[in-house]
User: What shape does this take?
Amino acid sequence: MPTLRSASRGLQSPNEKPNSDSITPSKKRSSSRSRETEAVVCSSPAVPRSDDAVGKVAKCKIISSPTSSRKRLYGDEPTHKPKWNPKDPAQMKAVKEALHVATVPSNVACRDGEQNRIFDFCKECLENDRAGSLYVCGCPGTGKTLSLQKVKNKLLAWSKEVGYEKPEAVSINCTTLTNSSEIFSKILEKFERTCNGLSPLQRLQRIFSQRQSSPPKMMLIIVDEMDYLITSDRSVLHELFMLTTLPFSRCILIGIANAIDLADRFLPKLASLNCKPPVITFRAYNKNQIYEIIQERLKGLGYDVFDPLSLEFCARKVSAASGDMRKALAVCRSAVELLETEIRDSCDLQEFHTVTFDHMDKALSKAFKPKIVDTILSLPLHQQIILYALVNLFNRSKKNSTTVGELNKTYNETWKSIHRNARTAIGAAEFTNMCQGLSDQGLLRLGQSKEEKSRRITLTVDSSDIAYAFKGHRFIQDCKHLEE
Amino acid sequence: MERTTPSKLSRLRSDSTLAATPPPTPGFTGPRRSSRLLTSPGPTKLDSDDAPSSLPTPIPSSTKAKRRLSLESPTTDPVTPIRSESKRPKRTTVQYKKVVLGDVEFQVGDDIYVKKQGSVESESEDPDVEECRVCFTPASKSKIMIECDDCLGGFHLQCLKPPLRKIPEGDWICSFCTDKKDGKEVVWPEPPEGKKIKRTAREKLLSGDLHAACIKSIWRETDGTYWLRCVWYRTPEETAAGRQPHNLRRELYRTNDYGDVVINSVLRHCYVMNPEEYQRASDDGDDIFYCEYEYDVNYHNFKRLPDIDDNYAENDESSDYEGDSDGDSDNDDRSLRGTSSNRSRSKVLAANSRKGRAYWLPKIAESKTQENRKRRKQSKLEKASAALSLASRPTSPPCRNKEMEEIETFVKGAIGGQECLGRCLYIHGVPGTGKTMSVRAVMRNLKSEVDSGVLRSFCFIETNGMKLSSPNNIYKNIYEQLSGHAVGWKKALHCLNEHFSNGKKLGKKDQKPIVLLIDELDMLVTRNQSVLYNILDWPTRPNSKLIVIGIANTMDLPEHLSPRISSRMGIQRLCFLPYNHEQLAQIILSRLKGIDAFEDNLIELACRKVAASSGDARRALQICQRASVLAEYRVKQIADAKAKGKSRVCLTDIEGALDEVFKSPHIQRMKMCSKFGKIVLTAMVNELHRTGGEELTFEKLSERVISLCSMHHEVFPGYDTLMRACCLLGDGGIILCEEPKKHMSQKLQLNCSSGSDDVALALKDCSETPWLSLYL
Assistant: This one.
């Protein structure tokens, strides 16, 4: 998520200011609105909450907007801490917005160490007027791109403050390149020099290897998702890093990717040339950090949406699973949505609703809990029998893969043992169809083969899960004797 | 646009497609436009004042007033899409194919200028002849006019400074335009005293003072007025995207917006051409336009016309239009002739009439079949099979209310507020569980909410991963639907990136939220997955206003993708479980409402069977349809007419259909084998049973066959024939055999899942050779 909602503001003042700027008006508005809607709700308590939320939204807006604007005109700031009211659409919207991935907090919490290291590196390069390269790695959703944007803004502000020439900053996301060598032409765009007949790379190399009459500006190149540049001969990646080693090179190259050892694995040559970029690792967030970041995002709202216990639960679960901040935010958002639907459906006029442990539990299980057992139980009967036959086949043969033909045979046997007087079971064409369905559900994997019969089948879920799911099944239980 | 510029006669198109057109030969140069004007002097003026004399049927004077009244009725305005039913009383309308007014003939498929209401009377004398921008006299044989490719104005060759001798090749831009581009002051020649500058119909149309439309049908009201139903064209300025740099000066968009127009508001013909025709029409006059795309007035997106014409049957608008026109109106083939004879206008009409024919071909065929159907009363079974066919789709799938509600709250949650937060939803489920149909139904519901003003409008784009020639082409597809401009995928990717991440606008107007539905999402997985990365990254950008709904079969697609993509995909999932038998029955019964074609419990039987194997609604529908077809076939054999009417689908039909689907076709094929083939199969089963193996050699088989034949007094036809029989069985897929050059050591194998059981089942009661069952 490279661009930031508050990035443009951050340019002018990298401090806390933009935050207060952007948040307070909405706070004001929402607080006054909340009071209004409360009034609406209280005045007509007998009316059951109607299902059309849209109409309600419109109503609330119409009533509340004039007052709020007047309030703002008079500068009448609410003194007390506003109360969280989930029935207020404006508050709900503000919460959802705060939890959206695209909304960017003014300061990235918990990444100060990494940010400072990157900043110091760039500062040193600027001060000594030399080129340099850096490699940033970390799991998805650990704030790499975000931190680098912050560093970029900070650096630009710093250079202005100190009086250095403002460096040129380029951010390139490699997924948007149509061809990996296009990256050089994107970098070259900043120089606007024409030397015809040369490729963009050669032109860049010429610029950096000869003393120019007017030395170009320092350049900060941020290359996001760098591993998309890996070609079969790795030349693009290699040349890109080599640009920083040229005698008159004036660019600071910062690469971002997920793999921790990208430079070691793909660029062993760089190490031998003694220009291996230093690596800064963004570790996955731990539970405290996740908790802190979510708190930070919600702080601007000024009311407690979440039960602290629920937030901690979310933080623990997400940090244990992946430490992906995007996931944590998505879980929180879906928990808020659960609360919203609950309020809409329920009829009691309870005053206070926060997102409780239960909501969070539901949201988390939606995201993380494996649903194998449920999936198996919701399968059509014949597909269940296929699975059962497959498990039996593996148990008997002590192998872990089979072919469609063999499985078909076992399935026919199983079917006959269940329905002794049954006519023949389902034909081969439909059988492959069902296997395809099972593989779509992610329960088994179908290999590729020229002939339908000889496609390999492997189980992707644990056989004990299947056995557990079939406990108490009305058909399969009858033929226990098949199972050892 | 500046309309004060001069123009020329022979139309040399400015677009690149035309660069290749050969320059007009001097003899021809002329003045194809002026020649047209000479042969058909003066376009018809159809003002209500002078029209009555030329109207085909005398109309009582009282209707005159009424006609003028109806001129003001809202239906004449292209912006009102609402069709008032009262305008077309069902019983009395008479449909015509063409109508002749004055000496101009309008027929279905023609393009026309339609006057805008209100402004009609003021400029009643329309200049039919374009005048030179310098000397203000029209073109003639001696004075050829040339058109400027920038301002579309006409100039006499002689009036130019310096004068041109012949029409130049390629693009030509007048000196006024070039001066203007260079930033010089431009002084247009003033018209002579007492003459005011008249605008041509084309200029009026392009500046929005006229409308263009294509006639779809013509009918007469009870009061004798003639009405046209037409589909409107729009100029690029009238679309949500505004005029784009790639739009040609004469480009129009066809819309999916229908309107009824009284014939008096028709000005005259214009000619809207597709790109090919437009390229050919280098000097066909001033009233030709270019149309490549259809513009959807509801979703504000663009579709290429050939794409639409291909799947024309799917078009909702046209199908329900078809539906109410076939009611009771009798199709009247006689063309109405006016007083004047039909003049030789074939040359001018040629391009257009050809277009009309090509376009309406599917429709004509459809109406013909409908006529045929009407003549013979449909039997119950025919009705049932028509209702059950996969092509006749209900507007929304039954039994999916919960899922549809979830999709609706998802979309509303994203676009409901003032600001649109980008989101992503992944829908998965096995085939035939109504995934795409549900999303479409939700979108239709939301559209009606947009129309009623509850929800703010959004743009809905649909693509299918299966229909893309390569995953990268999805950028092209999306961009084309957003802006109406086809570019290469690289350019499209660049533009979309600019749009979504930097907020660069695609059109002039404020950006609406975009709902992007991608069917078969798994087809977009490339080796480095960059396509999916880009598409799923856009919603996480601020201000992207993009909502992505992806549909695929596999449940665990996000887990197979690289973590950075699944991280961006979010956790919003929606699972469409396979239907259970009650739901399947409900789906089928909802289609068969009012048709009592099935005996009791048969539908349940079929549904239970399908639900037990796959839960695929398509499969269930196919089985029931097949059963009704089988029943129809069975009924045809019965001579008794009384029984015919009453007969319904019975158990044997549905069992036959079930067997066709669920049983392997092997058994049927074995039953159809030749006698000798059966003997071979029996021998094979017997030998395999004896040895207990999976395969046997040709040598062993032949021994066995010889012994069987001798025991039962059959003649052994020889090794050649035996080999041929084996090859035939092998070609039919009943047995597997090695290549026949190995002769005796060739290995053979049965190719059915349950081996000998299938053969036994197939050959058990064979009347020809009853002894076979002894060996099975």
